[in-house]
Structure formats: structure tokens, C-alpha cells
Amino acid sequence: NSAIQSTGSSNEQPSNNGTNEETDEQGVVKIGSILPFSGVYASLGKDLSDGMKLYFDQVDWEAGGVKIEMIEEDTEADPQVALRKLRKLMDQDQIDILTGAVSTAVAYAVRDEVDSNQLPYLASHAGGNDLTRAQRSDYIWRSSFSSWQIGHSMGAWAYENIGEKIYMAAADYAFGREVSAAFKEAYEAAGGEIVGEVYPPLGNNDYASYLTTIGSAEADGVYGFFAGSDAVRFVQQYEQYGLKERFPLIGSGWLVAEDLRESIGMAAEGAFVSTFWDYNLETAENEEFVTAYEEAYDRRPTIESLEGYDAARIIVEALTALDGDVQDPDKIVEAISEVEFVSPRGPIKFDQDTHHIIQNLYITETVVEGDRTENKILETVESVQDPGE
Amino acid sequence: MDIIGAQLVNGLSYGLLLFIITCGLSLVFGILGVLNLAHGSLYMFGAYIAYSLTATFSQSFWLALIIAPLSVALIALVVERVLLRPTYQLGHLSQVLLTFGLAYVFHDIASIIWGSNVLTIVVPDVFSGSISLFNQVFPVYRLVVILVGILIATILWYIQSQTRWGAIIRAGLSDKEMVGALGVNIKLVFTVVFVIGGLLAGFGGVVAAPILGIYPSMEFQTLILALVVLVIGGLGSIAGTLVASVLVGIVETFSRFLFPELSMFLIFGLMAIVLVVKPNGLLGKKVA
Amino acid sequence: MKTFVSYVTVLVLLGLAPFVLSLFHINLLSEILILAIFALSLNILVGYTGLVSLGHAAFFGVGAYTAALTAQNLSSNLFITIGLAIICSLIVAALIGIFCMKVSGFYFLMLTLAFSQMIYSFVYQSTSLTGGSNGLSGIPRVSIGDFQFGNPVLIFYLILAVFMLAYFGLRLFVQSPFGQVLIGIRENETRVKSMGYNTGLYKYFAFIIAGAIGGLAGSLYTFFNGFIAPTDVYWTMSGAVLIMVLIGGAGTMLGPVLGAALIVTMETVISSYTNSWMLIIGATFIIFVIFFPKGLVGIGQSLYHLFLKNKRKGKVDDKSEAA
Amino acid sequence: MKKSATLTVDGVGKSFGGLHILKDISLEVFKGERIGIIGPNGAGKTTFFNLLTGDLPPSRGEIYHNDKKITKLPNYKRTRQGMVRTFQKNNLLNELSVLDNLLLTLQRKLGYGYVWYKMRNEKKYKAIYEEAHQLLEKWGLKHRTNAIVKNLSYGEQRQIEILLGVALEPQILLLDEPTAGMSQSETDYIVDLLYKLPKDLTLLIIEHDLDVVFGIADRMVVLYDGGVLVEGSPEMVRNDPKVNQIYIGSEEEQIC
Amino acid sequence: MLEVKDLHTYYGESHILHGVSLQVKESSVSILLGRNGMGKTTTIHSIIGLVPPKSGQVILSGEELQTKPSYQISKMGVGLVPQGRRIFPNLTVKENLLTTHRSVKGGWTINKIFELFPRLKERETSMGGNLSGGEQQMLSIGRALLTNPKVLLLDEPSEGLSPIMVKEVVNIIKQLKMSGLSMLLVEQNVSMALELADHVYVLNKGKVVFDGTAEEFSPTIRHDLLSLSS
Ligand SMILES: Nc1ncnc2c1ncn2[C@@H]1O[C@H](COP(=O)(O)OP(=O)(O)OP(=O)(O)O)[C@@H](O)[C@H]1O
Ligand SMILES: Nc1ncnc2c1ncn2[C@@H]1O[C@H](COP(=O)(O)OP(=O)(O)OP(=O)(O)O)[C@@H](O)[C@H]1O
Ligand SMILES: [Mg+2]
Ligand SMILES: [Mg+2]
Fold it and tell me: Of A117, B192, C105, C236, which is the most buried if we count CB atoms within 10 A?
């Protein structure tokens, strides 16, 4: 159908109305997934995708009596590309539910388009606070985490266990800024003092100069928010420049993430981080997930694998509740909002106000086991709920 | 004051690392007039190949230090003979486009072979210790980089400006036809230079990997930085590249120290200022 | 008159597109037209004046962010947003131009890159103004009075109209005496100077015009997507548009348009099928450089000549004898 | 004295780094004069032209045109005032056609240089095109009108080089070795055209072909070692022993 | 020594040389005359391999050259002084000479070139591009001599040289001839060329229209072939 026809109706009613009937007849639900499969975030995109596929495989790609079809598009972590891909998914593939987005910018970019087209969207990674705050939409629900959850959960623990003075270093982009701000808020609320802050640019690979600066500070510990290659470089150089012996390193789970620790090597030992899932969580759900994942892909799952796995399960449960009827987007989001189960990361459910997930957070310590490092769970912060503003 | 001294050492070692990364680009541009946008990719291959050698096959950094650059040189050889050669008569812009295309191709080849995870290379034990200077701990490897950088600079400078080869090579830049008509197999010269450029890029990859790491899209980040250094120094001048590397290294280190948020801005600002004041870079020459 | 007829045909076809093509394709077409305007503006510098810029995204970004901020904070009126976008990018171009005119060749390329990266840093870091790395979202649709460009088809027509204005305006411009001076500068600036032209001024004007039209394209992009992010100011954007110009055929009017169409289509289509889209696109660049150095337009010309030659083979032989 | 001279050079010098190429040159040129400039290779003749046209700034001294100081005026403004040069080394728009080279020159002269809203074609700019065609006809280059400059032979390019200078109808024309590389017959033809240039045109010509230069010039200036060695009538210069020694060659053979 | 047989050379579609044949004998000078655009430079370029001929032969001491790349032709002993000098502007005078220097026992050395052209010695460290026209011409000649050729192709070597330098070059060519070098000289300065010539060729529109000794090239023939009315 031509553009004129589709837009003629789109001002008033959901655009995917006309075609849903078609899909229903064949009993197929189409899930669109926008993830980065190329560029800097490619490995995250791959893990998310693998996690989703693992779960869909487990239910034989069927839920509520309909077949599940997943169409993946590469966003290249570029918001404009993501928009282009989203339009393709909506218009050409006629998807019923959207999921994905690793980069927060991508999530924000698709936000208006999703909202005005009433397309149910389950955000499965992007953690920008605003997506479930000021930019909240009836059609957007998030099953991953928010920056606030990650940063805030560490605050009180750090004050009690590390000390009263902390130096803060975070990658200079919205995510890094948000997480460290949340940490600072909680840490100061607990009574601690941030004695210095520094924000190296994203993708900075030599931290020598920053480490020299940090090294001359009077602090009890250093909070670092870095991810990916930044994290590897930071943690390694932190040790090489002799800081590790002087200040304990704390941060978010990505600092010593599952897929990075091998590269980081022993330098990771002794880091304390906050995260919402870890490989070594000792629950039945997690053991089952880890075993299944390792069997399917012959490597350890990462936190992104888990995110994908959970997102898939949420979709499946919602579809089951709907009996496979995806005609009405409002019903879909309602079904999603009611999903609640014990995931490998612990019990999860949605906050009906913010549309954001309520979950446990864990403080872990990195320890040496044999010739590699593992994260050990020290403490659980239960049912962390984003304040939503 | 100690902190200033320590930052100076940081700046110097970062600067010479930049030099090691950039000198191949500078050589190829200065001599062939080819702005090799795939230089970063060759650098990346150097790092990845070294990774494979140290992590899986031989576990020897020393072996990687020899084999990885040679393998990259081989890639450079193929690129020059098969792709670059037909474009010499088309002008500089074509080569920019061609090597850019190559960078894309190499990017995906690398991610197909090595995936998109973050990797590192472990340095041999001799270098893995640290030394205390200005009340600050420095990894020995960083200091070794300073020495290696100076060594390469000396060798390149000598060849380029003190030997007949240097003259022939630079003559080819202005008038290939005439160099040929005067009895020099300019095509061969170009191949050799490009291969040496590749060798240096690969070597840079191995040396830099323990410091800068190996991660997807590393080549583009390196490329931009290398281009900045190249331009600040002045095109075609190895000495200029050296001065610029050290300058950029020190400016970047101190800007991170003094204005951490502005460091990205400042490097490009530095380049803009240098070019506005000296339109041919610090040591570049302009000939009528 | 033949060209006139073909222009009209193309226009009519474009005008009818929304009745035939699906929404997705219309959106793709809109994007192509926007990037075509952008590429055309760069082509003034690269193709006609011989100044190869790797910082053109700066103006695109300034235009896009100006339009976005205007629409959010001031007015979503079409003329006000576009007007301000053009004025701001023009001013930025005028400022940057003062410095860039001092250098030439590869140094020009790098200096433009430097300025655009500085603008990028600014956009990236002024989180409160520009949204930083997350970009600016929730930008209202543009309107004229009460009429709102509320759906993609209306926006398509808006973009088409602006594209036509830009295309024909630039066509006139490059063929005017002024444009011919630019071509002269590309070929040999010293000579043109000693003909009595103030070449510095001509280059400066070319730079400003290119910047302003680049900004115009940027503002359209904002209207189109309702969103703008720092990636659109990053050097990769400058690189992409430069490639559109080169692949299409620098120094021609049609080239950049075709280049934009090819690159956008390839990026969209290929990456839906494989994650190794960079490999395929990269290989395409290489093939172009080696086999079609004159770009898409060059291919067209050779085909045309081939056709012509076969048709009157006898005549051509005569001519070469005489020469 | 200064008043009547159209071009006055007052103590001009030029150094490149430590090399003092031109030391102290003073010269007055009057309207309609034809001045021949000779001197050994590397004496600084081309450099002198570069100073006059503003392609290089002098290291010292002043230059006046019609009593106005032009020492610091950029070259394109001097061209507009009627001082036009040709280059010793062909310096053309190599990728364009002969006609385009000429049109670009003429459109400036006729004042259309800044028009940006009207396409340049034969219909809209009749004057430019007519003049271009006439010039090409007159210079015997009509058959080359649409040839791309870089595909012309060296001597043909030389002719275009001079044509572009003359086409601007200058008041002062500076020719740098105009006939170098031209064959005898072309030289004769061009020299004939130069003779026919308007009487009030002031001509400065650097030329190693003595037949040409002695034929055209009213006054000769011999540059040597950065200064003026001899100045005077062609006859006088030809017989000057110093000039013979450093420039023409000791025995008066009929080589040239 | 050097023999050119029935050369046909094209630039793209346009046929420039229509069967040019000529010879340069051992230790002799052949000159090639012709008006502008008649194909002299094209002939030279065809011999040295810069514009490979479509058909015909170039034979040097019994070996065919026409299919070889230009650097090999040069190495086999063909030197070139190109039209328009074409020195390397981004190299100093010394480096310009260094690039082509091929040492041969008793052959040309850089110092000998400096003796020949003292002006170059004075400008030793100047960039080639900054030299005056005449100085560049000297450099170009010096550069060609340093390849120590057996046959030297000179394309208008007197262009831009002062009369005294032209005489100097004439003397040099005479000396070279005595020392056994063969030369093909293209010149517009006909009287200079005739002073050196053993054999004269005149080109017109890519065809040899005169082929004879210097004596046979009488002033009337000269007038007929080189004046404009032809
Ligand atoms: N930019 C420059 N830098 C250094 N030296 C220069 C420069 N330009 C010219 N020269 C030197 O100045 C001298 C004069 O050069 P110029 O070109 O004026 O000579 P000329 O009289 O025109 O000689 P010719 O008759 O050979 O053309 C030469 O020795 C040349 O090497
Ligand atoms: N690259 C080229 N492409 C096409 N035609 C060319 C090219 N070079 C030269 N020609 C043409 O070939 C013909 C012969 O040129 P050539 O340079 O051999 O002449 P020439 O006898 O050396 O003249 P001159 O005395 O002016 O140097 C000329 O008509 C010229 O226009
Ligand atoms: Mg001169
Ligand atoms: Mg010639």
C-alpha cells in the first residue's frame, strides 16, 4: 500500500491496524529487534541477540498459539540509522512488537516514532534515565536497568565499606555522567565526600595522565565508571601505575564484566562493583540459564545475554497472556506490564508508573580463582526501584 | 612539582607512541603522496596478528614483534600491487577514496576473524615491571616505548634525507614520469615504500597494543589521531612528525591534567592554531 | 530542450512517488533528497572550487541543531526555523572560512576536519543545550501558520520542493560567470589571480554558500527525523558525504545526487542482509576508484559515448584521420 | 619627473633568506615605451617581474603606478589597474578548453566576474563570446578553440599564454620570454602581432631571442648580479663590451 | 646507433605520428625540426617510452626498445633532456643530480656537472622549483648527462638560455659528440641546431618531410618547410 494510503490513516489510528489481520490469519507475531551488529557495540548486540534466541528456542518460537518471527536490524549504534531501520520494520515488515537498542541515543531517537505509531517497545538494554522518566511513553517499557539503579546502589555500600572520601572517574558521555551522578547522590546522602571528579572522553585509551592526577589525591577509594575497551584499559593501567595498592577500585558491573575480565587479567582482582546479574549468582534459575547458554554457544553468557534472554521471556509471557492476539497495541503493553517472574537475575516485575523494571542489585568483589578471576557476590540490594523523576 | 615531572614523562611516552604509530603514514604520504586511510587498519592488523601469536600459537611477544609486522607488510604488498598501482595516475583524491574503502573492508575482515571483543597483549616479563620516577610509579614498558620511538625516528631521518634513495623517492612524488624516463623503476620504488609503510604500521600495532588495547573500530580512532599528528608536523617531514608527536603527546597529557573535559577539543584546537599560523605545518616546506 | 523535458519528467515522477511507493520508500527517498542537497553543497567546494573539505558535517550539524532548538524553544514555523538554521550555519561558515582560507590542499582538508571536530566536541559536551551524546529528541513538527507538516508524505513534498530550489539554484550558480571563476580556481589559482580575480574572496564566498546550504540540509534532516544526535556532526558524516560526491562524480550536478542515492540505498539494504555491510560498501568504493574513476556520472557518459560511437562509427573514424 | 612616468621603481630589492637576488633597482617607464629586459640566467629578471605584478613582495623599495604607490597592492588589483603579465613557464587552466581559458579572462575584463545568477552561454553573453572568437581568429588559433589546453603542444600553449595577457587589453604588459619554445614562423607571427599592439601600451619584455627583443624595444635594461648593468638604446647595448662578455658571448657569431 | 622505423603514435583516438622513421648514427647529431605541434616531442616520448607507439620499431644497437618501460630504456643508455625542463621542484639542486647519477668509470660525476655549470654550484642547496628558467634548463641537461647515456635525446635544450649559455651548450654538445655520444636534438633555434647537425629531419603533421644531410638542407628548403605558409 502506498505512502499516501498509510499516512491517510496514521494521523488517527495505529498504522499497523490494517495488516495485523493478515498476520493473525497466518498466526505469526513479528518481533522487530534493533541492535548494533557492527561498530563499537557489536559484541553487545550479538550477546543480546543470542540471549533472545536462546529463550525463543526453548519455547520453540511459539507463544499463545502463534508463531514468533524475529526480524533483526543492525543499528550500527547510529540513531539516524536506527530510525531508518525502524521505519523499515514498521512499514515493510509490519512488526507487532519492537525490542532492542543498546545505545541510549538510539532509544531516544526512536521514542517519538514508536510513540506516535503506538508500537509496543520493550527496551532491552539502553539505560538512559529519561526513557522512563521525562520521555516516558505508554508504549515503552524497559526490562534492563536505568543508570540510576546502577550508580545509586553502590552509594551506601561504598560509604560503609570503603571509606569517607572517594575520587570519581567516569567516561564522558550521558550514561557515564548519569551513573556517576546517581552514585554521588547516594554516597553523599550516606555521609561520604567526593574529593574529586574527572571525566575522560569516551574511547580514551591512555589513562596515564588521569591516573597520575588521581594518584596525588587524598582519598579512600576510587569510583570508576567505564565500559568495554575503556574499562580494560582503565583497570589495567590502574594497576600498572601503582594505584591499586593504594586505593580500592569500585564501580559498576561493566568495569569487570564477564567478557572483559579475560583481557583485563589479574589487574581486576579486588574491584568492587554493583550489577544486576552475575555469572556466579547461585540460584537455580541462573544455573539453568548459564548451562543452557554455554551448551548452545560454547561460551559464557554476559549480562547482555541475560538481558536478551529476559526480554524474550517477557515477550513470550505477554503473548501467552494475550493468547497470541496482537491486534491492539494497548492490550500488548498491558500484558507486558503484568509480566512478573523469577529471572536468572532474581525476581523482576514492572513499575506501573515508570514502566521500568524493579530488580535486585548485587555488590560483587573480583577474586582470583585458579588462573582467572571471578566475581563473588558480597551483598544483595533488594528490589531497587527507579524513582522515576 | 613532582606531578609536573610525572606528567611530562607521561606526555613523552605517549608522544613517542604516537610517533611509532604515525611514522609509516608520514613516510607513505611524504613520498608517494598517497594519503593512506587504511593505515589505521594495517596498524590494527599488526595488533590482532600479534594477539593471535601471543595468545594462541607461540606465546612469545618477541616472535610477534617480528612476524606481525612482516605479515602486515605482506598485506601492504598485495594492496599496493593489486589496488593502488592502477590509481597513481588518477590523482590524490582517488587514493583517499580507495584506501577508505579498504579500511571498511579490513574492518569487517578483522571482525570476522577476531570477533568484536576487547583484547589485550601481555608484555614479556622484562618489561612488565615498574620504576619509580618523580614519586610516581611508571610501567617500564612506557619507558621502552620512548627509546624505540627515538630509534625509529633516527633511522628514518637518516634514510630519507641523507641517502640517494631518499632523493629518488621524493623526486617520484613530483614527477613520476620523469623519474622513470631517467632510469629509475619508480613502480618498484613505490611498492617498496608502501611495504615499508605497512611494516611500520604493523610494528606500531604490536608496540601500541599493550598500552592502547585492541578493540573494534580501534583503527579509525588511531587514524584520526595519526592524521592530526601528520598535519601538525608538516607533510612529508619525518622530523616534523616527530616534533608533532611529542607536542601532541605533551599537550594532550597536560590538557587531561588541567582541563580533562576539553582534551578532545584542545587537540583539534592545537592543530587549527598551528595551521593558521604555519599553513604548511611545523616543519613542512612549500615550494613554488 | 531535451534536458528540459527530462527534468520535467523526473520531477513529475518524484511528485507522484507517494501515490505509488510505500511509506518506507518515501522516507528513504526523503532521506536521499536531504543528503543529496548536502552533497550538492559540498560539491561546490570539492567539485567546483577544488577545496576538499572533511568537515562539512559541521554545517549540517549547526543547521540541524539550530532548527531543532528553534522549533523547541522559539517557534516551529517553517520559515523561522529554516531561516535561522541557514543564518547560523552561514555565520559559522563565515567564521571558520576566515581561517580555512589561509591553507590549501591537504591542510585545508585537515583544518576543516579540526573545526568540525571542535564543533562536535562542543555539541557533545553541552549536554544541557544539545542533549550531549543522547541527542535532542521530541522536536516538534514544523508548520506554516496552522498548517502542520504532520506526516511523512507532507514532509517529503516539503523536502522535494527545497531540493528543487537548491538543485536549480546551484545549477545556475555553477554555470554563471561566478561559478566559472571557481572552476578556474580549481584548475589553477595563480593564473586566475593574475587575470585580475580576487580568488581569496571567491573561495570564501564558495565556502560560505556551501556552509549555508549544508545547514539547510541539516535543518531538513531535523524536520524529517524529529531527532538529532552528535553522530551527525561527527567526521564520519563528513566522510560519508564526501564519498557521495566522489562516487557520484565530483564537479557535476547530477553526480552528488546519484551518489547520495547509491550510498543511502546501499547502507539501508545491505545492512538488513548482512552484518558485514562495511565490507561490501568498502569493496564498492574500491571498484569505483579502479574501474569508474569518474563516478556514476562517468559511467553514464561512457555508456552514452559507446552508444553514440556505434551509431555513427564511420564518422568518428573520419574525424580521427583529420586530427 | 615622477609625474610623467607610468611606472616608477624606486630602490627595489628582493632577498630570499640570505640570498640577495635583486639589490637596488630603480627604473622609470613612460607611457607607450617598449622596454627590453635582458640579462644572464638567474640575474633576477623574472623575480623583477614578480615584484612589479605583486606576485612577490619586495624586500625593500617602492613601486609606483601613475604616481600611486602600489608596493603593497595585491596582484589581482594591479591586473585590474591594467598591469598584466605572462609567465615564463606556461601557467594555464590545463584541463579546460582554449575557449574557456579565454572566456574567463574576458568576462573579468568586461565586468561580469561577480555575476552569479545568470548562466554563462553564448546567448546571454554575446559580447564575451564574440570577442573571444575574434581573438582566436586573429591569433590563428581558431582550429584549437575547443581543444583542451593540456593536449596542445608546448609551443601552442605558449601562444595561449600570451594571448591571455593581451586579451585583457592592458596598459602595461609584461611578457616573460614570450617566444621561448615557439617555432620561427610562430615567433614571426607573434612578434608581428606585438608590433601592432596599441601605441599607448607600455611593454616590458624579457627575451633571450635577441632579434626579437632588439627589434621591439626602444630601450634596453640589462640586469646583472642583482642590479642594472647597462641601460640604453638597443644599439648601445648591443655594442656594450660588458654586455657582450656576460650575456651575448665574446665572439659575435650569428648563432642567434 | 639509434634507429626509428615507421612509428605510429596516438593520444587516445588522435593519430599524431604517421610513420616517422629516422636514424642517429654513432657519434653524430641528428636534428629534428618542425613547427609547433608537428610531433617532435611526441617522437621523443615514443622513443623513451613515455608514450608507447602503437606500431613501428625503435632500435638501439640492435635491440628493440618500443615495448619496454621507460626506465629500462633509460638504463639501456638513452638519456633525456625533456621539453619544459621538468626538474624536480621539491628537491635541491644537488639532490636533483643525485637522483639520476649512475656511476660509470670515467663518466659524468656531479662535480663535473658543477664545473660545466658553475651557476648550479652556486645554487647547490636551492630547491629546484625556485631556480630561474635558465638555471633549471642547465640542471635538466646536467641531470641527463649524469645517467651517462649512449644516446642523448634533447628536446629544445636552448629554451630559456641566454645567448652566451646557448653557445656554451653548443660547445658541450660538440664535445659530447667528440667523446662518442650520439644525439637527437629537437630545436626551434634553427641556426644553432644547424651548426651541430650531421643529419636533418623535418616533421610536418607527424610525417617526415625532409630527410638529408645538413648540406642538403638549403635555405630555400628551410624556408619552404618551416615558414608559416606551408
Ligand atoms: N623563491 C625563491 N627562493 C630562493 N631563490 C629564488 C627564488 N626565486 C628565485 N630565486 C633565485 O633568484 C635568482 C633569479 O631568478 P629569476 O627567475 O628572477 O631569474 P631570471 O633572470 O628570470 O633568469 P632566467 O633567464 O633563467 O629565467 C635565481 O638564481 C633563483 O635561483
Ligand atoms: N596528451 C596529449 N593528448 C592529446 N593530444 C596531444 C597530447 N600531447 C600533444 N598532443 C597533440 O599532438 C600534436 C603533436 O604534439 P607535440 O608535443 O609532439 O608537438 P611538438 O612538435 O613537440 O610541438 P612544440 O614545438 O610546440 O613543442 C599536437 O597537435 C598536440 O596538440
Ligand atoms: Mg626568468
Ligand atoms: Mg615539443
Answer: A117
Within 10 A of D210 (CB to CB), how many other CB atoms are there? 19
> Quick one: residue E86, left, alpha or beta (phi over 0 = left, psi -120 to 50 = alpha)?
left
The CATH number linked to E152 is: 3.40.50.300
**Is residue C308 one of the residues assigned to a domain?**
no
Give the CATH number, domain containing residue C263: 1.10.3470
- Per-residue pLDDT tens digits for C263-280: 999 988 888 888 888 899
Task: Tell me if C102 and B261 make a contact (CB, 8 A cut-off).
Answer: no
Which residue spans within chain D are E strands per DSSP? 5-16, 19-30, 34-38, 60-65, 68-69, 83-85, 172-176, 202-206, 219-224, 227-232
Q: For residue range B89-105, what is the model confidence (pLDDT) as tens digits?
A: 887 888 888 999 999 99
**Above 70 in pLDDT, residue C313?**
no
For ligand 2, whether the C-beta of D154 sits within 6 Å is yes
Q: Largest Cα–Cα distance of chain B, in whole Å?
A: 61
Please list every residue in chain B whose beta carbon sits closer than 8 Å to the beta carbon of residue A216. 3
Q: What is the rounded distance in angstroms from the CA atom of residue C115 to the CA atom of residue C121?
A: 10
Instruction: Tell me how far apart the alpha carbons of residues C252 and C262 are, in angstroms, rounded to a whole number.
Output: 16
Domain count, chain C: 1
Q: Which helix (H) or strand (E) holds E155?
A: strand E151-155
Does E49 or D4 have the greater pLDDT score?
Answer: E49
Question: Which residue is closest to D44 within chain E, CA to CA?
Answer: E132
Q: Which is nearest to B220 in space by CA: C280, A39, D179, A107?
A: A39
Backbone angles phi, psi at D88, to 5 degrees: -65, -40
The length of chain E is 230
Looking at residues B121-142, what average pLDDT do you find? 82
Expressed as residue numbers, the domain containing C267 is 22-291
Q: Across the interface, do C194 and D105 touch by the CB < 8 Å criterion?
A: no
Find the farthest-apart pair of alpha carbons in chain E and give their distance in angstroms, rounded. 50
C-alpha cell belonging to residue C10: 523526473
Give pLDDT, residue A10.
43
CA-wise closest residue to E174 among E160, E191, E195: E195
Q: Where are the domains of chain D?
A: 7-91+170-248
Contact residues, chain C to chain A, C-beta under 8 Å: 17-28, 31, 124-125, 127, 131-135, 137-138, 150-154, 156, 221, 225-227, 229, 231-232, 267-268, 271-272, 275-278
Q: Of E177, E176, E155, whose CA–CA distance to E86 is shortest? A: E155
Domain of residue E181, residue span: 2-226
Give yes or no for residue D21 CB within 6 A of ligand 1. Answer: yes
CA distances to B199, B263, C317 from B77, in Å: 10, 37, 42
User: How is chain B split among helix, strand and coil, in percent rounded to 5?
Assistant: 80, 5, 15
Q: How far is E212 from chain B (nearest CA, A)?
A: 29
Q: Which three cell numbers stand for residue A120?
A: 509496543
Q: Is A116 on the interface with B (CB under 8 A)?
A: no
Pocket test for ligand 1, best of E130, E136, E162, E164 (most atoms within 8 A of CB): E130
| Helices C254-273, C295-311: inter-axial angle, 10-degree rounding | 110
Q: What is the pLDDT of residue C309?
A: 66
Concatenate the DSSP letters of all residues of A363-383 into one string: EEEEEEETTEEEEEEEEEEEE
E90 in C contact zone (CB under 8 Å): no
**Cα C223-C226-C230 angle, rounded to 5 deg:** 100
According to the CATH classification, is domain D7-91+170-248 in 3.30.230.10?
no
Q: Pick the closest to residue E150 from E117, E102, E198, E192 (CA basis).
A: E102
Yes or no: say if A108 and A87 are a contact pair by the CB < 8 Å rule.
no
Domain assignment present for residue C13? The answer is no
Whether A15 has a pLDDT exceeding 70, the answer reads: no
